[in-house]
Amino acid sequence: MKTRPKLRLGALALSGGAVLGLLGPLWASQDKQTKPVSSGPTLQETRVSLDKWIETQQIIARERTEWQQGKEILLGRLELVKSELGALEKKLDEAQAGAQAAEEKRIELVAENAKLVATTNELTTRAAAFEGAVRGLVKSSPAPLLERLQPLVQRMSDDPSHARASVAERFQNVLGILNELNKANTEINVNYEVRALADGKPSEVRVLYVGLAQAYYVSAGGEAGVGSPTENGWDWKASPAIANDVLIALDILQGKHTPAFVPLPIQIR
């Protein structure tokens, strides 16, 4: 009974050492936990961080300002481009309208030109026909009239298809010839001419032209004749019986005889 407490103390002593051995690390751990912890960054570190933050904010503000300015510039340019685009579209519309009007005008002018060409061709054909008819009239004109018509006749080309004169000039020339013919056809003219008489010798005669339809001549020797137009010129035939009547008619025209009825032969074709 008495030895048990000793064992217990020894055990306790052993266990106490073990406890002390176990408490050593615990105290060390507790010592570490109870060691003072750092209070944070230093003042210098805080200043550096603050400077960087301020710099960052300034960069952000500057970038925001530049972005805003750039945005406004881009918006202004966009508005300008839109305005220019609108002006260009307007000009394009006007150009297209002008081109359409020009095309319509061109089509109109082409049609008008075609009409003018057709009219010119028609007038050219008619001018050639009139010139042919006028040539026939000129051939049957008396000699005095032929001399007056010669300058106008020479203006007509022998080949109408290669005439150098314009259509207007050709019509004007034809009208000039017709005017002379019409004037001569409404007048009674006396002309001195040289003709071959019955003896075959040329002799001067006085010729009385009644328009362009009939003519009478008489020589100083009393030889007389009648002339009428043909396709190849005038045809003259002797007619001694009318010599006295022709002389009377000539005297009446010259005022040497009182007006009177003078019977003269006429041939109607």
Unreliable sequence segments: 1-37
Number of domains: 2
Radius of gyration: 69 Å
Please state how the strands of the largest beta sheet are arranged side by side: 1-2-3-4-5
Quote the distance from N terminus to C terminus: 202 Å
- What is the count of β-strands? 5
pLDDT averaged over residues = 83
Largest sheet, in brief, is: 5 strands, antiparallel
Question: What's the helix count?
Answer: 5
The shape, in one word, is: rod-shaped
Helical percentage: 55-70%
Provide an overview of this structure.
With 269 residues, this protein is α+β, with helices and mostly antiparallel strands. The chain has two domains: 55-186, no CATH class; 188-269, no CATH class. 63% of the residues lie in helices and 14% in strands. It has five helices and five strands, in the order ααααβββββα. The protein has a five-stranded antiparallel beta sheet, with helices on one face. Strand 4 (224-230) and strand 5 form a beta hairpin. Helix 2 (43-139) packs parallel to helix 4 (167-185) and helix 3 runs antiparallel to helix 4. Residues 1-37 have low confidence and may be disordered.
